[in-house]
Design a protein that fits this description.
The protein is globular and about 55 Å long. A two-stranded antiparallel sheet has the order 1-2. The protein is mainly alpha-helical and 445 residues long. The longest helix has 34 residues. Helix content is 75%, strand content 1%.
């Protein structure tokens, strides 16, 4: 087998020794600045978010609004397409990875980042809607690769190039996670990767509307399934749950002591691990969630921005539940980076039905996330190449989806952290510039 230890060590050095401090300052700094600039919009706009959700749920027929774009989609399909990438296997797997590497306090910082960065996501969506354009076929192209052109074209090209690669990597991470879990059930990794690649091709061939329709049906279903069984485990032992919450609070500003196979973590490790995993889960700061939202056929841009911002509530809920599962059961103390911890918890603490439910939920989570990431990657590449070589990009994406299923887990995660930071730098700096240069876009929030 190919020795990847040198690659893992290289990416780990970049992430921990070179990028860690700049990343923490940049991600947290921009989210806090935008939160203050909008007057804590994530709190003020919550009632309006609820009204939009209930209005959408009570509407039986979708009527086209105002846009003349050929591939515009239902605003709620845009929301669920975005949710399909941010609410996914990351909410199940990533909190455990954050805790394993940064200690129990990392879960707190993960949630705190998602809370503040929800305004970052709102800002991304607002500028994506205001700057979206039509390509030669009359279809919408929108997102950071468009609004960054208002800062400088080369910044947009840099983002689109890096993000095209990152979104392929994100899909590889999902494939890696699913294959690792199914490997515990004696199913070869290559089989899982191949099946996932075939299903993805079939769904992507239907375009934006099919992606939105699939996501809008699957996301609520898998959300309810996972939360129900997770709460069943957590509420079986209230004392252990209370102790887990105390452990988190005690680890917020104190180094996490070595326990079991866990080697301990510093305060900065907890903050950095929690933050970077919060970015991976919510996509706030890297701009990808704004791509499907930019396709929404919506009359008032602010409504779509608020829907995007409010979607982080689901991210926080799922992440907190997943992290508590790891802490309550004590499985995090065995040490070692693993993306199968929650599945092992379900296997140990629920009846057979629970294991089946989790396998189904994770499979659906992975599928919708891969679909969303693939769609976002194609949109990025389309903007970069002006519509050329899209089929070639899709072919590379599908191949890497299969390849990700057989690569070592630590290599996949460390590589993605590096590329994620490289993509986030132009997006966050550009977003901050735009927020202050064009304050009227956020003024009436």
């Amino acid at each position: 087998m190919l020795d990847t230890s040198y690659l893992i060590a290289f990416f780990k050095w970049l992430n921990n020794d070179v990028f860690a401090l700049p990343a923490a300052i940049l991600f947290f700094g921009v989210s806090i600045i935008l939160t203050i600039k909008t007057g804590f919009l994530q709190i003020r706009a919550f009632p309006r978010f609820l009204r939009l959700i209930f209005k959408g749920l009570s509407t039986t027929k979708y009527e086209k609004k105002s846009t003349s774009f050929g591939n515009a989609i239902n605003p709620f399909h845009a929301l669920f397409t975005a949710l399909g990438t941010s609410i996914g296997v990351g909410n199940i797997v990533v909190p455990g990875i954050a805790i394993t590497t940064g200690g129990p306090g990392a879960l707190f910082w993960l949630v705190i980042y998602i809370f503040f960065a929800s305004v970052t996501k709102f800002t991304e969506v607002m500028f994506a809607l205001h700057t979206r354009t039509k390509n030669d076929r009359g279809d919408i192209v929108g997102g950071p690769m468009e609004y960054l052109k208002a800062v400088h074209p080369w910044l947009a090209y840099w983002y689109a190039a890096i993000m095209s690669a990152l979104l392929i990597g994100f899909s590889a991470v999902q494939s890696n996670t699913l294959s690792s879990i199914y490997a515990l059930e004696k199913i070869p990794a290559w089989t899982t990767g191949l099946v996932l690649a075939i299903i993805t091709v079939l769904i992507l061939s239907g375009g934006a509307r099919r992606i939105g329709a699939v996501a809008s049906k699957l996301v609520p279903f898998m959300f309810v399934l996972y939360v129900s069984f997770a709460l069943f485990i957590l509420l079986k032992d209230i004392t252990a749950l209370v102790n887990a919450l105390k452990l988190i609070m005690n680890s917020i500003l104190m180094p996490a002591a070595p326990l079991g196979g866990f080697l301990g973590a510093s305060i900065f490790q907890a903050i950095h691990c929690g933050m970077i995993r919060g970015v991976f889960i919510s996509e706030s700061g890297i701009g990808t969630a704004s791509i499907p939202h930019a396709m929404a056929d919506v009359k008032h841009h602010i409504d779509q921005g608020i829907l995007a911002m409010g979607s982080t509530i689901a991210d926080i809920l799922l992440s907190a539940i997943s992290g508590l599962l790891i802490l309550v059961t004590g499985i995090w103390m065995r040490g070692g980076l693993s993306n199968t911890l929650v599945y092992e918890v379900f296997k140990l603490y629920t009846p057979l039905a629970g294991q089946i439910i989790l396998l189904v939920s994770i499979s659906l989570f992975v599928l919708t996330t891969v679909i969303g990431n693939s769609f976002n990657g194609i949109q990025n590449f389309t903007s970069l190449s002006r519509g050329h070589w899209t089929k070639l990009y899709t072919s590379v994406l599908i191949f890497c989806l299969f390849l990700g299923s057989i690569l070592p887990t630590p290599l996949v995660w460390e590589a993605m952290d590096t590329v994620l930071f490289l993509a986030a730098v132009p997006n966050l700096l550009g977003l901050l510039y735009l927020a202050f240069k064009y304050p009227t876009i956020l003024k009436n929030c």
